[in-house]
Design goal:
This protein is mostly helical and 388 residues long. It has 18 helices and no strands.
Length: 388
């Protein structure tokens, strides 16, 4: 073959490859708004980990706006986990029995791998509460619910959100957590994000997927309902919520609070509503030209596991090389790592998505789950996935 012919063939192949990567990120197989929301959740968790955040949110004081990431980013992440589960199991209509069994099996394998990865990240000694063990447990808890319709799922999510904070206070107060064994069990369960209550966010996300997350009516409903819930939760806390002293002193104080990571009733309502509103806004924004403006954030959201894990691994490596111990949170934050890690993650994820495709850890999870639970390859996907 002539040199000219070889060059022409290579260019055609490259064009086809790049076109396929572009289509994977921007085609009908992905829901741009879900990717955007997931990207914001991941970067919000970066901020919560890497920045000094103090004081309460005050809309009139821009310096306090960064406090919005505390607690809310991880709750948004959990809600989007439910959306992903819903999309992987049929979208608006649950998969038929045979395909649902396959999908559940693959999700169970993913959950197991996420739990193992979470434990490995905890073992690095990075001083953050790793969400992946709790994330994995919530995946498993959601599996029996994947055949339910949207209405039942949303009603169940609402019931869990109202009831479980009352139970959570009792669970958190168990003496077991103060024992050496309790400490390790709490790490293994991701108890900073207690699945017993946080499953409400996953079920809500699953219900949103069943309602039809690509429908304009559902997207508008998400914004309206989410804002109303946020106003109820945060507004009630501002008017009557417990102060830190009362929260620590009594059952009612621990319940009647919207403090981030308190799992109080008002936090569950307010932050759950915040997550729904952010998802709805992202979905609506991606109906406009903003879809292309936020492409780098969507690229992060297309590989959230890779982005989240890479942040912690890089953190551990830098801290081990420059600090006395990896667990020195103040010392690491003093290095001002937020912007370098955030910008580096956005650039890397964007380049990877456009030049290579699916994120490396997402590829491993998908391939492992398909290997462990084979399915009928003749079955074509009939719904958009937007899953990592």
């Amino acid at each position: 073959m002539s040199e000219r012919g070889e060059t022409k063939r290579t260019e055609t192949s490259d064009d086809g490859w790049l076109a396929s990567r572009w289509a994977r990120l921007n085609g009908p197989g992905r829901i741009a708004g879900v990717d955007l929301a997931r990207g914001l959740a991941v970067l919000g968790m970066f901020a919560a980990h890497l920045l000094w955040i103090g004081g309460a949110f005050d809309a009139a004081q821009p310096a306090t706006w960064i406090t919005v990431v505390q607690g809310r980013s991880s709750i948004l992440f959990a809600t989007l986990a439910g959306v992903s589960i819903g999309l992987m199991t049929g979208g608006r209509e649950p998969l038929p029995v045979g395909r649902m069994t396959t999908a559940r099996g693959r999700l169970a394998v993913r959950a197991a791998l996420l739990w193992v990865l979470g434990i490995l990240l905890i073992a690095t000694g990075v001083p953050v509460y790793v969400i992946l063990p709790a994330y994995a447990l919530m995946f498993l808890l959601a599996l029996p619910l994947t055949s339910l319709p949207a209405r039942m799922l949303l009603l169940l999510a609402g019931a869990l959100a109202v009831i479980m904070p009352f139970v959570q206070i009792v669970l958190d107060a168990l003496p077991f957590w103060s024992t050496p064994a309790g400490y390790f069990v709490s790490l293994g369960l991701g108890w900073h994000y207690p699945f017993t209550t946080w499953i409400a966010f996953v079920v809500a996300g699953l219900g949103v997927a069943r309602a039809g997350v690509t429908r304009l009516r559902v997207q508008v409903w998400l914004v309206v309902a989410g804002v109303l819930l946020a106003l109820v939760g945060y507004g009630t806390d501002a008017a009557t919520g417990a102060d830190p002293g009362a929260e620590a002193a009594s059952y009612l104080g621990a319940l009647w609070t919207a403090r981030p990571h308190s799992t109080g009733l008002l936090e569950v309502i307010g932050s759950g509503g915040f997550a729904l509103a952010v998802l709805g806004i992202c979905l609506l924004a991606c109906r406009t030209v903003l879809r292309w403006v936020v492409l780098p954030l969507r690229a992060v959201g297309a590989m959230p596991l890779t982005a989240y894990t890479l942040q912690l691994v890089v953190w551990a490596a830098i801290a081990a090389a420059t600090l006395d111990r990896v667990g020195d949170l103040a010392g690491f934050r003093a290095l001002e790592p937020f912007w370098p890690l955030t910008i580096g993650t956005i650039v890397l994820c964007t380049a990877w998505a456009l030049l290579i495709g699916r994120g490396p850890l997402e590829t491993v999870l998908d391939a492992s789950s398909r290997f462990a639970v084979p399915g009928d390859r003749r079955q074509a996907r009939s719904v958009p996935t937007s899953t990592p």
